[in-house]
Amino acid sequence: MDDFKILRDMMVDYQLIPRGIKDERVLAAMRKVPRHLFVPDFIRHSAYDDMALPIGDDQTISQPYMVAVMTELLELRGDEKVLEIGTGSGYQTALLAELAREVYTVERISTLADGARRRLTDLGYENVYVIVSDGTKGLEDKAPFDRIIVTAAAPKIPEPLINQLKDGGIIVAPVGERFSQILIKGKKEKGMLIEEYHTPCVFVPLVGEHGWKG
Ligand code: SAH
């Protein structure tokens, strides 16, 4: 077994399971996806630490536990069409690709999108589409989606994303102030979003027409 696999198992056994992550498919995917290939070389040794890490362009890859919580809240069973806003490194995208049928991921910074696309291709994911755009507007021509995950924070859930979610679908997004938010899980029922409030969190800002204005 290689050293990174050992670190990955330790991440799951010491950071995720004791804090209550239960979904076996999520745990298996996090034991599998090589997180160290999604962080810059100079911090590769920290890839499995219990923290967010810088990925360039002032952006971050989320802490493993936060990734696990968000992924578990999506309740993926394997046949969903998923929209992700905020590709970043592509790490969360890889997990979604493991757990769902098809993933559309939108990133506003093209250098990050290019890096993520290359990593996901190198790892052999064929059910992922990386798109450079303002994700606060969603992805109208591919809608509707079974699940939507937003990995950057906005003052509220962008309206276009709610419109592009299927009835019965789930959206997970951090919502709140610029430097502190709460993770929201919304389920769309009869056109209305029923919201549950989960863990406090800190995400980089979602910048765009229906997010922060820069
Ligand atoms: N999920 C990522 C972490 C993303 S950090 C990972 O696993 O690495 C949040 C990302 O959201 C950043 O890359 C940022 O550039 C992007 N972002 C911010 N506003 C956006 C917008 N309006 N549309 C698309 N992406 C956006």
Task: Tell me about this structure.
The structure is a single chain. By secondary structure, the chain is of the alpha/beta class. The chain has a domain of 137 residues: Vaccinia Virus protein VP39 (Rossmann fold), CATH 3.40.50. 28% of the residues lie in helices and 28% in strands. The chain is built from six helices and nine strands, in the order H-H-E-E-H-E-H-E-H-E-E-H-E-E-E. The strands form two sheets. The protein has a seven-stranded mixed sheet. Strands 1-2 form a two-stranded antiparallel ribbon. The chain is globular, with a radius of gyration of 16 Å. The model has no long low-confidence stretch (mean pLDDT 97). Bound molecules: S-adenosyl-L-homocysteine (SAH). The site of S-adenosyl-L-homocysteine has 26 residues, from strand 2, helix 4 and strand 4.
Helical stretch count?
Answer: 6
Low-confidence stretches: none
CATH architecture of one domain: 3-Layer(aba) Sandwich
| Mean pLDDT over the full residue set | 97
Question: What overall form do the CA principal axes indicate?
Answer: globular
Major β-sheet strand ordering: 5-4-3-6-7-8-9
- CATH hierarchy, class of one domain: Alpha Beta
User: Can you give the helix content as a percent range?
Assistant: 25-40%
Radius of gyration: 16 Å
Strand coverage percent:
25-35%
SS elements, strand count: 9
**Name of the CATH superfamily of one domain:** Vaccinia Virus protein VP39
Bound molecules: S-adenosyl-L-homocysteine
SSE sequence, one letter per element: HHEEHEHEHEEHEEE
End-to-end separation: 45 Å
> What is the CATH third-level topology name of one domain?
Rossmann fold
